[in-house]
User: Fold this.
Amino acid sequence: MRNLLVTGGAGFIGSNLTLELQRQFPGARIVVVDDFRSGDFKNLRGFRGDVVAADVSRLDWGRQFGDRSFDAIFHEASITDTTVHDQGLQVHDNVEGFRRLVEFASGTQTPVVYASSAATYGIGSGVQTEDQEPAPANVYAFSKVQLDNLARMHAQRSPAWRIVGLRYFNVYGPNEIHKKAAASMIFQLYRQMKSGQRPRVFRSGEHRRDFVFVRDVVALTVRAATAPHSGVFNCGSGHPISFNEVIGVLNRNLGTSLEPEYIDNPYADFYQPHTEADMSRASKELGFVPQWKPAEGIAEYVNFLENR
Assistant:
C-alpha cells in the first residue's frame, strides 16, 4: 500500500493507526484529514506525511484531492462523545462525512475501512454478534447504524468494492488523554487511583465491559483493508471484565489497595450493562485473533502511563 488516507488521524484510534501504517509501510504517502475538534497535534509526533485540516462532513473531496487515487482509506473521523445529545450535529457530522467519503471513493472503488461501534447493539446484555438487529439507544449509536446502512447499500451496488465496518467495543490505550472526560474508563480510573482517590464506578461495580487494547484495534483495522469482501466485523477482546476487576488489576499494577466508591448511574436509559464481542467472524473471515486480554492490556497501558 503506497498511498493511504486516514480521516480523524489526530484522534485517539486514528493517530495510533496512522503511526502504525507509517511503521508498516515506510515508503507510503499517508494523508491525514482532521479538523482537530477532538484530535490533538501531539498525537502525531513523528508523523512524516501530509495533514489536511478540514471537517470531513463539509470537505469538497474532489476539489481537495482531484484525481489522486489511494490504495486504502481508513475512516476514523467522528463525534465520539456519546453524551453529546445534539441530534442534528451528531447525525450530520457522522453520517454526511461518511457519505462524502464513500462517494469520493466510489469512482475508483478504493477499499474503505470505517469505524462503526458496539453502541449499535443497544443496551441488551450478553454476547453481541454482527447479525443482531441494531437497537441504538442514543443518537451517536443511531448515526453509526446509518454508516452501516450506507456501506451496505454501496456494497450491494458494487459487489467487487470492499467497504468494511468495524464495530469498536471499549477501546483504551495511548493517545487518549486529550479526550478528557470522554477518555476510556481504564484511563479515568487510573487517573483517580494515581492521585490517591478511591475509584468511582456505578453502583456495585459489576457491569461488564469488553475492553479492547488499541493495539488490537489497530491490527484488525489494518487487516480489514485486505478483507476478501465487504461486511461488518466486531472489534473487541472477546473477554468482558467487570469494573471491580479492572480496579483490582489497576491496584496490582500501581501497588495500591484502594476500594471502589459506588455512585448512582445517571445514564441508565442508554447504558449498556454488559458488552462482549463475538470475535468468531473476524477470526474465520479475516484470520484475526485479539492478542491482548484485558488484564494484560491494562498492565501494558499502566506501564506506558507510568513511563511516558
About this structure: The chain has a mean pLDDT of 94.
